[in-house]
Design a protein that fits this description.
The complex is a heterodimer of chains A (1244) and B (193).
Chain A: H1 2-13, H2 18-27, H3 32-48, H4 52-67, H5 76-83, H6 88-101, H7 113-120, H8 125-138, H9 141-154, H10 160-176, H11 181-191, H12 197-213, H13 222-231, H14 235-248, H15 253-269, H16 273-290, H17 298-313, H18 317-333, H19 335-339, H20 342-348, H21 354-367, H22 373-386, H23 390-409, H24 415-425, H25 434-447, H26 452-464, H27 466-470, H28 480-491, H29 499-506, H30 516-539, H31 544-561, H32 566-587, H33 593-599, H34 611-614, H35 662-678, H36 697-700, H37 721-753, H38 846-876, H39 882-887, H40 893-898, H41 906-916, H42 933-938, H43 951-957, H44 959-983, H45 988-997, E1 1014-1018, E2 1022-1030, E3 1037-1046, E4 1051-1059, E5 1065-1067, E6 1079-1080, E7 1090-1099, E8 1106-1117, E9 1122-1133, E10 1139-1140, H46 1146-1154, E11 1159-1165, H47 1172-1183, E12 1186-1191, E13 1194-1201, E14 1206-1214, E15 1217-1224, H48 1227-1242
Antiparallel strand pairs in A: 1-2, 2-3, 3-7, 4-6, 4-8, 5-7, 8-9, 10-13, 11-15, 12-13, 13-14, 14-15
Chain B: E1 2-9, E2 14-19, H1 25-40, E3 49-50, E4 62-68, E5 71-77, H2 83-101, H3 106-111, H4 113-123, E6 124-125, E7 128-129, H5 134-169, H6 174-177
Antiparallel strand pairs in B: 1-2, 1-5, 3-4, 4-5, 6-7
Helix pairs in contact in B: 2-5, 4-5
Classes of the chains: A alpha+beta (1244), B alpha+beta (193).
Chain lengths: 1244, 193
C-alpha cells in the first residue's frame, strides 16, 4: 500500500505543478495562448486519473488559469471530487477552486450538499473552516435551506474560530434563504455579546449589513448597540456600530439625541482618524434627522465642520477627500456653516488630484448665492480652460449648468450673463454635453420671456458662425447647440434684428452636413423665419424683396429635399411646395404674410417632464386591455427616428399638407382645438398659450430688456461673460446707492413724522435681479397625482430580508432539519422531548406538519383576510408599504407569516421607547416591574421563544384590529413622539400589539397606558424612578435600573447610592469595598437631564417580598454655592420582580400540570370592571406572565422565576368576578404573587 | 460589503482576483482591465479612493487601493465599509503577506497564488471582514500549514525533492532575476488601532 502511494508520487513528479505552469507561461510570452491550451490538455489527462493527488494538482492549476480568464466550468465535477478528499491539503484546493468558479448556475453544486454537511461537522476545525469559507462564495438558495440548521449549530461551536465564520456566513444564508432569518436571529443577537472579540465583531458585521438595508426592523437593538458602543474598544466594531447608528437615526430622532453626547466625546478623545471620521459622519446624520426640530445643536455642527476643516487641510489626500465628502452631507441641511469655508473649498478646486476636485465641485453646488454665483462660475470657467482631460472638463461643464439652473434659476440675477456663459461653453472641443447646453438654451429662452430678445441675437450669431462649431468632425457633440439656436431663432423670430440674414445663414449648403435631426429643425425654422421676413417686407414699399426671399427658399430647399434623412426630406418638400404656392400668390400681388404667419401662431408653454405620467387614469379605462385584436407578429419599431429633445419637440400638430389652403387649415385647427379641449387625455395648455403672436399681450406686458449697447456683440468664441460680470457689479452698486438714498429720504421723512427709523442693515442676499424675470413654471395636468414614485429595484435581494424580528417565532418557523441531526429548536418548556424529524430534507418535521394541519384552516382564513385587506388597501391608496408588496412573492403559508407586517414585542417596544426618552414622567404606580433593555438582550434564551400556537384563532378574530394597526404603523413614530410626553414608554398602540400577541384582543378598545418604572423617591432636586427585574443568567441576581432626573437648575454631582443590606439581599459592591460603602453613580447630571444607572443585588431566597432602605447622597452645585444633600428611599423587591416572562407550549403546560409536583392556591377578585383582554394584558405586563391558551373568558398563563419555579395560572371571569386558580412548586412564592396580583387590581 | 479584491502589477497583469459576486470569466477580465486603467493613470500622492463608471455594482461602490512597489492592491467596496478602515485592512493584508513569505515580493504572489488566497480567506470571508488582527491570522495560517506538512509526510517528500531540483536547474530561477527593488517595502503607517 505504502509502496503504491510512493509510486503514485513518483509518477506525479513528472506532472507540472502550479509553479511549473506559471514558469512555463512566463517562458512562452509569444505564444502564451497555445502553450496554455496544451497545458489544459495535460490537465484534462491528469483529471482522468484515479490518484487524488494528481487531480488536486490539476485543479490547483485550473484555479490559476481561471484567474487569467479561462473558463474552467467544465471541470466542476472534478473540483467536487477534490473537495471530498479526506486530506485537508486537497480539500482546501478543491474548496478554493469551487469558490472561484462555482455560482448559482453550476449544476454539480447540488451534489455537494452532503459533503459540505460532513465537513461542517468534521472534528477538525480547519476542515469546517475551509468549508465555511468556500460556502460563503457559492451558497445557493438550496444549499442555504439545507445547511442553515447545521450552520446555526456551529454558531455555538466551542472554538471561536468556527463561531466567527459561522456567524459571518449567516448573512449569506439569509440572503439566499430569507425564511431562516427569524429563527436564527435570537442566536445571532446572542453573539453580539460573545466573549471572543472576533465573534462579536462578526455578529456586529452581519447585523449592520442587515440593518443597513432594512433599518426599521433593527431599531429595537439600539440599546444593545449603544451599550456596545460605549463599552467596546475595538475600532472595527465601533466603526460598524457608528455607521449603523447613522442608518438608524433617520428613523428615530430621539436616538440621535441620545447619541450626540457619546459621539462628541469620541470625536474629542479618539486618535484613530477612521473612527473620528465615522463619528463625524454619524453626527451629521443625527443633525440631519434633527434639523427640523432642534435649533440648539449648532455647537455640534460647529464641531463637525471644524474637524472636517482639519481633515481637509491635512496634507494626506485621503483625509482631504473624505473631509470634502462629509462636508457635502452637512451642506444639505446646514449650508450656512459650510459656506463659511468657501475659501478652503475653492482652494481644493486647484488640487492636482482629480477626485478631490470633483468632490470640491459637488460642494460648490450648495455654496452659491445670488451674490457669489458670477464669481464662482467665473472661476469654474477658468478651470474649464485649463482642464486637460475631457472627463473632468465635462464634469465641470455639467456642474456649471447644474449650479446655475438649480432651483429654477434661483441664483441667477442676470440672464444675459447666463446666456453668454452658455455661448462660451460652446467653444469646448469634443464635449459630450452639447445637448445639455442646447437644452439649457431652449429652457431659458422659453421660460424667461424677458431674455428672448437677447437670446435670439446670440443664437443668430451662433448660426452665422456655425462653421466654427461644425468645422471639425471631432466637435460634433457640440453641434447639438445649433439645434437650439435654430429653434430659438425660428420660434422667437420677431426679436431678430436682421431675420433675412439669419434665414440665409440657415440655408447654407454646409448645413447639409449636420446630423439629420438638426437639419430637420433648420428646415422647419427656416419656414418660421420666412413668415417673419414676409411680414416685414410686405409692409415695406418694395414688394420685390418679398419675392426674392421666396426665390431664395425655392433655390435652397431642394438640397434638403434630397436628404437621406426622412424627417428632413418630408419637411423640406412640404415647405418647398408651400413656398412655391406662396410665390405664385405673390406674383398675383396677393398679400400672404398674415396667413403664412398664422401657420406658426400659438405660444408654447413648458410642460413638466413628469406631466404625462401624472395624468390620472380615468375611471373605467383599462389600459391593459387590447383595443384591437392582438397582432399576430410584433411590428418592427426601430425605424422611428430618435427624438433628441422629446420635451421640447413642440409643434407636432403643424400642418402636414401645405397644399391645403389656409381656410381649410384654420378650420382644421379650430376643430382640433375643440377636440383637444374636450379630450380629457390631452394636456391642455393654459389659456394664455392660445394667443397669437401679433397681438400677444403676454409678451408686451413684460418689460422689454434693453440690450446694453456698451457691450458690443461679438463673434462667439470671444469671452464676454466677464463684461457682464462687470456690468452687473456696476448695476448692483448703483442700486445700492439708490437704495441708500431712498433710505435716507425715508429716514428723513420718518424723522419728520417723528417715528423711529428702524430699518436694519441691508441684507447682502437682497439683490434684485437685473430685470423682472418671469420664469414660467412647468405645467402639470389637472388633478395630477401628487405622488413621487418610489423607484425601488424589485430585484433587490435585500427586500426579502425586510422581516420583522421582534415578533415571537411561530411554530412553523423552523429551519428544516434532517433526521440524523439532533434537533436544535425546542420549546423552552419542553426540554428533553425532541421528536424525531422526518427524513425528507425539504419537508418540515412531522410534528410541525401535524400542527400545520390543525392550523391550516385558520391559516387559510387568515391569508384570505390578508388578501382582502391588501385589496382594500390598494383601492384606498396607490402606494403600498414595502412589507405588503413583499408578501406576494412568498408562497408557503409558513412564509406568509414571515412577511407579516412588523409589530414589536411589547416589552421591547416599550423598552426602546423608554430607553430613548430622556425625561421620564412617571405616574405613581405601585412598585411593579418588567424587563428593561438589559433583559431584552440578556434574556435571549438558548432556544427561541415560540409563540403559543393557540394564539392564532384569536389573531384571526382580531384581524380587524390588525388591519387598523397596520395603517397605524406608518404614523407610529409620530405617535410615539407625541406620547412620550404623556406616558413615555407605553402607548396604547403598543399595548394593542401586545395583546394581539398574547392572543387576547377581541375588541378594539385601547388598553390603558402601563408603566414598568415606579417612583422610588423624589425631592426638589432629584427624582428617582426604578425598575427591578430578575437576571435570567444568574438565579441569585436582581438588577435594579434607576433613572435619576435632575429637577433643579443646578448641577448635581458626586452622587452616591447606598443600601442597607439585609440578610437575604445584598447590594453587589466592587471588590475591596466595605459592606456599608455606597456605590458612586457613574455620571453627573446637568440641569434638566436624566440618566440611568444599574445596580445589581444578590438575593438568596425569592419566595418572600423584601424592602430595603437606602440613601442617595449628592452635591448640588449652583453658580455660587454647593451643598451636600441626601434623599432616602425604600426599594421594594416584590415577588413578581423575580418572575421572568417565558413562553410555553400548551402541551408542555398540560404535562406540567399533570405532573402533580405543583401546589395549588386560588384567589377571587370582585368588582373588576375591565374587559378580559385588558385584565390579561395587565397580568402579562405587570407580573411577567405569558398567555398559554385562551378560550372565551378563560385563559391559562405561565411564568417562571429566576430560580426555575414554574408558576401556572388559570384565570376565569364571569361578570365582575375574576377567579384565579394557581399552581406553583413553591407555595409561599405563589401566595405572594397572588397577593401582588390582587393589589394590582384593587388599585384600579 | 467588499465586492472584489484585485491584485495586479504595474502592467495590469492579474496576480490575484477574488470576486464575491459571480461574473463570467470575460467580465472578470474586463473588470480587471478597467480597474487597472483607472488606477494606473493616477499619480502617486493622490488620494486612494476612486469612484466612477465601474462594471461592478453601481454608484454606491468605491475603489480603494494601495500601490506597493510593483503591485496594486485594489478593494472594491460599497458604502457600508469605512474607507480608512479598508485602507488599513490592505495594510494588514500586505504586512501579513510579508510575514508569511518573509519579505514578500511580486514573485511570491506569482508562484504561490494559492497561498495568497488562503491568507486572504482568513481575513475576508464572502465579502465581509473576518479578522483584522494580524497575529491571529498568522496563527491560523501556521496551524494549517503545519497540518498540510504532516499530511504530506513521506509521500510528499519525493515531490518536494523534485521541485527543489527543478528550481535549481532552471536558469530563470525567479529570485535571481529581479531581486531588490520589486520587494514590497511595507511602510510603517500610523496604526489604525
Amino acid at each position: 500500500m505504502a509502496l503504491k502511494i510512493v509510486k503514485g508520487s513518483i509518477d506525479r513528479m513528472f506532472d507540472k505543478n502550479l509553479q511549473d505552469l506559471v514558469r512555463g507561461i512566463r517562458n512562452h510570452k509569444e505564444d502564451e495562448a497555445k502553450y496554455i491550451s496544451t497545458c489544459i490538455d495535460e490537465i484534462k489527462q491528469e483529471l482522468k486519473q484515479d490518484n487524488i493527488a494528481v487531480k488536486a494538482n490539476a485543479v490547483c492549476k485550473l484555479t490559476y488559469l481561471q484567474m487569467l480568464g479561462y473558463d474552467v466550468s467544465w471541470a466542476a465535477f472534478n473540483i467536487v471530487e477534490v473537495m471530498s478528499s479526506s486530506k485537508f491539503t486537497y480539500k482546501r484546493i478543491g474548496y478554493l477552486a469551487a469558490s472561484q468558479c462555482f455560482h448559482e448556475g453550476t449544476d454539480v453544486i447540488m451534489l455537494t450538499t452532503n459533503q459540505i454537511r460532513k465537513d461542517l461537522s468534521s472534528p477538525n476545525q480547519y476542515d469546517t473552516g475551509v468549508a465555511l469559507t468556500g460556502l460563503s462564495c457559492f451558497v445557493t438558495p438550496d444549499l442555504a435551506r439545507d445547511l442553515a440548521n447545521d450552520i446555526m449549530t456551529l454558531m455555538s461551536h466551542t472554538k471561536p474560530y468556527i463561531r466567527k465564520k459561522a456567524v459571518l456566513i449567516m448573512y449569506k444564508v439569509f440572503l439566499k434563504y430569507p425564511e431562516s432569518l427569524r429563527p436564527a436571529f435570537p442566536r445571532l443577537k446572542e453573539k453580539l455579546e460573545d466573549p471572543d472579540p472576533g465573534v462579536q465583531s462578526a455578529a456586529v458585521n452581519v447585523i449592520c449589513e442587515l440593518a443597513r438595508r432594512n433599518p426599521k426592523n433593527y431599531l429595537s437593538l439600539a440599546p444593545l448597540f449603544f451599550k456596545l458602543m460605549t463599552s467596546s474598544t475595538n475600532n472595527w466594531v465601533l466603526i460598524k456600530i457608528i455607521k449603523l447608528f447613522g442608518a438608524l437615526t433617520p428613523l428615530e430622532p430621539r436616538l440621535g439625541k441620545k447619541l450626540i453626547e457619546p459621539l462628541t466625546n469620541l470625536i474629542h478623545s479618539t486618535s484613530a482618524m477612521s473612527l473620528l471620521y465615522e463619528c463625524v459622519n454619524t453626527v451629521i446624520a443625527v443633525l440631519i434627522s434633527l434639523s427640523s426640530g432642534m435649533p440648539n445643536h449648532s455647537a455640534s455642527i460647529q464641531l463637525c465642520v471644524q474637524k472636517l476643516r482639519i481633515l481637509i487641510e491635512d496634507s494626506d489626500q485621503n483625509l482631504k477627500y473624505l473631509g470634502l465628502l462629509a462636508m457635502s452631507k452637512i451642506l444639505k441641511t446646514h449650508p450656512k456653516s459650510v459656506q463659511s469655508h468657501k475659501d478652503l473649498i475653492l482652494q481644493c478646486l486647484d488640487d492636482k488630484d482629480e477626485s478631490i476636485r470633483l468632490r470640491a465641485l459637488d460642494l460648490l453646488y450648495g455654496m452659491v448665492s445670488k451674490k457669489n454665483l458670477m464669481e464662482i462660475v467665473k472661476k469654474l470657467m477658468l478651470h474649464v480652460d485649463k482642464a486637460e482631460g475631457t472627463t473632468y472638463r465635462d464634469e465641470l461643464l455639467t456642474k456649471i449648468i447644474d449650479i446655475c439652473s438649480q432651483n429654477n434659476y434661483q441664483y441667477i440675477t442676470n440672464f444675459e450673463w447666463y446666456i453668454s456663459i452658455l455661448v462660451e461653453l460652446t467653444r469646448l472641443e469634443g464635449t459630450r454635453h452639447g445637448h445639455l447646453i442646447a437644452s439649457q438654451m431652449l429652457d431659458v429662452a422659453i421660460r424667461v420671456k424677458a431674455i428672448r430678445g437677447f437670446a435670439v441675437a446670440q443664437m443668430a450669431m451662433l448660426l452665422d458662425n456655425a462653421h466654427l462649431l461644425t468645422g471639425n468632425t471631432q466637435r460634433n457633440g457640440i453641434c447639438e447647440v445649433l439645434y437650439a439656436a435654430a429653434w430659438i431663432c425660428g420660434e422667437f423670430s420677431e426679436h431678430l434684428e436682421d431675420p433675412m440674414h439669419t434665414l440665409e445663414a440657415m440655408l447654407r449648403p454646409k448645413v447639409a452636413t449636420l446630423p439629420g435631426h438638426i437639419q430637420a429643425v433648420y428646415v422647419q425654422n427656416a419656414a418660421k423665419l420666412f413668415a417673419t421676413v414676409l411680414r416685414k417686407q410686405e409692409g415695406a414699399p418694395d414688394s420685390q424683396a418679398a419675392q426674392e426671399t421666396s426665390q431664395l427658399l425655392i433655390d435652397r430647399l431642394p438640397l434638403f429635399v434630397q436628404s437621406a434623412n426622412l424627417e428632413v426630406q418630408e419637411r423640406a418638400s412640404c415647405i418647398l411646395q408651400l413656398v412655391k404656392y406662396i410665390q405664385k400668390l405673390q406674383q398675383k400681388d396677393v398679400e400672404v404674410a398674415e396667413e403664412v404667419s398664422a401657420l406658426f401662431a400659438g405660444e408654447l408653454n413648458p410642460v413638466a417632464p413628469k406631466a404625462q405620467k401624472k395624468v390620472p387614469v380615468p375611471e373605467g379605462l383599462d389600459l391593459d386591455a387590447w383595443i384591437n385584436d392582438p397582432p399576430s407578429e410584433s411590428e418592427s419599431e426601430d425605424e422611428k427616428p430618435k427624438a433628441v429633445f422629446a420635451k421640447e419637440e413642440p409643434k407636432h400638430t403643424r400642418p402636414r399638407h401645405p397644399e391645403v389652403d389656409e381656410k381649410e387649415l384654420a378650420r382644421r385647427r379650430e376643430a382640433r382645438k375643440q377636440e383637444q379641449a374636450n379630450n380629457p387625455f390631452y394636456i391642455k395648455s393654459s389659456p394664455s398659450s392660445q394667443k397669437v403672436y401679433q397681438d400677444a399681450p403676454g409678451v408686451e406686458h413684460i418689460p422689454v430688456v434693453q440690450i446694453d449697447l456698451s457691450v458690443p456683440l461679438k463673434v462667439p468664441g470671444m469671452p464676454m461673460s466677464d463684461q457682464y460680470v462687470k456690468l452687473e457689479e456696476e448695476r448692483r452698486q448703483k442700486e445700492r446707492a439708490e437704495k441708500k438714498k431712498k433710505e435716507k429720504k425715508k429716514k428723513r421723512e420718518k424723522r419728520g413724522r417723528g417715528k423711529k427709523g428702524d430699518s436694519g442693515p441691508e441684507s447682502e442676499e437682497d439683490i434684485t435681479p437685473a430685470h423682472q424675470v418671469d420664469i414660467v413654471t412647468e405645467e402639470m395636468p389637472e388633478n395630477a397625482l401628487p405622488s413621487d414614485d418610489d423607484d425601488k429595484d424589485p430585484n433587490d435581494p435585500h427586500k426579502a430580508l425586510d422581516i420583522d424580528l421582534d415578533k415571537p417565532l411561530m411554530d412553523s418557523e423552523k429551519l428544516p432539519v434532517r433526521t440524523h441531526r439532533p434537533e436544535v429548536l425546542k420549546s423552552p418548556a419542553e426540554d428533553g422531548d425532541g421528536e424525531p424529524a422526518q427524513a425528507e430534507p425539504k419537508k418540515r418535521s412531522s410534528k410541525e406538519k401535524k400542527e400545520k394541519k390543525k392550523d391550516k384552516d385558520k391559516d387559510r382564513k387568515k391569508s384570505k383576510e390578508e388578501k382582502k385587506k391588501k385589496k382594500h388597501k390598494r383601492d384606498a391608496e396607490p402606494e403600498e408599504p414595502v412589507e405588503e408588496q413583499m408578501e406576494e412573492p412568498v408562497q408557503s403559508e409558513a412564509s406568509a407569516e414571515v412577511a407579516a407586517p412588523p409589530t414589536s414585542t411589547p416589552t421591547e417596544a416599550s423598552d426602546l421607547d423608554f430607553w430613548l426618552s430622556n425625561a421620564p414622567e412617571v405616574e405613581p404606580t405601585p412598585p411593579e416591574t418588567t424587563s428593561t433593555p438589559e433583559t431584552t438582550s440578556a434574556a435571549a434564551p438558548e432556544s427561541e421563544p415560540e409563540e403559543p400556537k393557540d394564539t392564532e384563532p384569536e389573531e384571526t378574530k382580531s384581524s380587524k384590529h390588525k388591519k387598523k394597526k397596520q395603517k397605524k404603523e406608518k404614523e407610529d413614530k409620530e405617535k410615539k413622539k407625541k406620547k412620550r410626553h404623556h406616558h413615555h414608554h407605553h402607548h396604547s398602540d403598543g399595548a394593542g400589539d401586545e395583546s394581539v400577541q398574547n392572543g387576547t384582543v377581541e375588541e378594539e378598545e385601547p388598553l390603558p397606558p402601563m408603566s414598568n418604572y415606579c417612583l422610588l423617591a423624589e425631592n426638589s432636586y432629584i427624582k428617582m424612578v426604578c425598575d427591578i427585574q430578575g437576571n435570567l443568567q444568574d438565579g441569585s441576581q436582581v438588577v435594579v435600573s434607576v433613572i435619576f432626573e435632575n429637577k433643579s437648575d443646578c448641577f448635581l454631582k458626586s452622587m452616591e447610592f447606598n443600601v442597607l443590606d439585609s440578610l437575604n439581599s445584598k447590594l453587589q459592591r466592587p471588590e475591596g469595598a466595605g459592606p456599608h460603602d455606597g456605590l458612586t453613580v457613574p455620571f453627573q447630571l446637568p440641569p434638566g437631564v436624566s440618566n440611568e444607572a444599574r445596580f445589581v443585588f444578590s438575593v438568596q431566597s425569592i419566595v418572600m417580598p423584601q424592602k430595603l432602605k437606602g440613601t442617595l447622597t449628592f452635591i448640588v452645585k449652583s453658580e455660587d454655592s454647593s451643598t451636600h444633600e441626601k434623599l432616602d428611599f425604600k426599594l421594594h423587591f416584590t415577588c413578581t420582580s423575580y418572575l421572568i416572562t417565558t413562553p410555553c407550549y400548551s402541551d408542555a403546560y398540560a404535562k406540567l400540570l399533570e405532573s402533580g409536583d405543583l401546589k395549588a392556591s386560588s384567589l377571587k377578585l370582585e368588582g373588576v370592571n375591565m374587559p378580559f383582554h385588558h385584565l390579561l394584558a395587565r397580568i402579562c405586563f405587570h407580573h411577567h406572565f405569558s398567555v398559554v391558551e385562551r378560550i372565551d373568558s378563560c385563559a391559562s398563563m405561565y411564568s417562571r422565576s429566576i430560580q426555575g419555579h414554574h408558576v401556572c395560572l388559570l384565570v376565569k371571569t364571569s361578570g365582575e368576578t375574576v377567579s384565579i386558580d394557581a399552581k406553583c412548586d413553591e407555595p409561599s412564592l405563589l401566595g405572594n404573587v397572588l397577593e401582588e396580583i390582587k393589589q394590582t387590581f384593587s388599585r384600579c | 460589503m467588499i465586492k472584489a479584491i484585485l491584485i495586479f502589477n504595474n502592467h495590469g497583469k492579474p496576480r490575484l482576483s477574488k470576486f464575491y459576486e459571480h461574473y463570467s470569466e470575460d467580465t472578470e477580465q474586463q473588470i480587471i482591465r478597467e480597474t487597472f486603467h483607472l488606477v494606473s493613470k493616477r499619480d502617486e500622492n493622490v488620494c486612494n479612493f476612486l469612484e466612477g463608471g465601474l462594471l461592478i455594482g453601481g454608484s454606491d461602490n468605491k475603489l480603494i487601493y494601495r500601490h506597493y512597489a510593483t503591485l496594486y492592491f485594489v478593494f472594491c467596496v460599497d458604502s457600508s465599509e469605512s474607507e480608512l478602515g479598508i485602507l488599513d485592512l490592505i495594510q494588514v493584508f500586505v504586512e501579513t503577506l510579508d510575514k508569511c513569505f518573509e519579505n514578500v515580493c511580486e514573485l511570491d504572489l506569482i508562484f504561490h497564488v494559492d497561498k495568497v488566497h488562503n491568507i486572504l480567506a482568513e481575513m475576508v470571508m464572502g465579502g465581509m471582514v473576518l479578522e483584522t488582527n494580524m497575529n491571529e491570522i498568522i496563527t491560523q495560517i501556521d496551524a494549517q500549514n503545519k497540518m498540510e506538512k504532516s499530511e504530506a509526510g513521506i509521500a510528499g517528500a519525493p515531490a518536494r525533492a523534485v521541485s527543489a531540483v527543478k528550481n535549481m536547474n532552471l536558469p530563470e530561477m525567479p529570485r535571481n532575476i529581479n531581486i531588490g527593488d520589486i520587494s514590497i517595502k511595507v511602510p510603517n503607517l500610523p496604526s489604525f488601532k
